[in-house]
Amino acid sequence: MELLHSATFPSKQKLLIVVTISISLFTIIPLLYPFFEDPNFFLKQQPPNQTNTILKLQNGLVTTHESCDIFSGQWVPNPEAPYYTNTTCWAIHEHQNCMKFGRPDMDFMQWKWRPDGCEDAVPVFDPLRFLEMMRGKTMAFVGDSVSRNHMQSLICLLSQVEYPVDASVKADDYFKRWTYETYNFTIAPFWTPHLVKSTEPDPTQPRHTDLFNLYLDEADESWTAEIGVFDYVIISSGHWHFRPSVYYENRKITGCHYCQLPNITDLTMVYGYRKAFRTAFKAILDSDSFNGVMYLRTFAPSHFEGGLWNEGGDCLRKQPYQSNETQDEMTMKLHKIQLEEFWRAEEEAKKKGKRLRLLDTTQAMWLRPDGHPSRYGHPLEANVTLYNDCVHWCLPGPIDNLNDFLLAMLKREEDEGLLAQVRKMLS
Asked: Active-site residue 389, yes or no?
């Protein structure tokens, strides 16, 4: 009996396998039938991609089509905002804490960006989705105090899910590190207001020596030596370049910006601005250690009206500009320089297999003259000389929307990775 059972068992097993395969085929074939008729059938069943990246099968190839520019659009009301307050987020610096210091209006916090032609391409920031995407990764914010302002906004938005812990390796506040332990995600600011090596004026010297020294062909090692361990690096720079400076190249003076020194040519700040970005991009392209994604976050303009920053200028508007409002001449110049240098570097990046991306947020931020602290970044009764702040941004406020753009771009990066995998599978 035992021999008979052993002899018949394989036959029963084969029969079971055949039956199982037959049932599976009868189930799957009807589901696949629409795909044979139209290779894009399943893609059509998916909801529209929020970054507006559409994957298609065309002649047996998987392709992508960007159907709109997410950075061209207008601000529309968002009554659900803000998503945190000055009492729920500890990362807000005093001079950006507009609510604490008595700003009377609230409307400036309740807007969101709507791109032209693709309204859902930049959804409101989803902190949980962001943290899941960043699990096990690192992100650096390289630049000046507006860059730090951007990072603090991100911390506040993520506070809806989790607060980070201080994981700093340096005591210097300009180079902190914050880790979200549940997600093993670390963010860090790198203070470098010019992106290139610079020295500040010596406060002990006479006033006429109140000049920065900028070494335009030497990237600032405080960030270039550290970025190798980061998956994402967001660089930006702007307002510090307006300060009087002496320019050095090959360690020799080549000119200056508003230095008023004899026998030194005033090359204007746009010369130094272009050179600084060219040098910064070159440092990234030449880096052997950095294999992540670099984002250029373009210039965030100031909005002084009625005078310069030190001549009583202020920013008291309570509504965004309309989308057809023309940028001021200097903002247009600096933005154009950034784009030209980025495109130049991007061509080289493609040859080297480096990934450079553009967060082209200048126009969106230009339309927000209502979002600065003005006089509400300090106690109104402060007995000191303070200027109205029309450079930085209130928290909560318009700068939070930079993270809407950032997440949309990160999703696009993720989609492109999936696209590459699909192409590989079909090749």
From this structure: yes
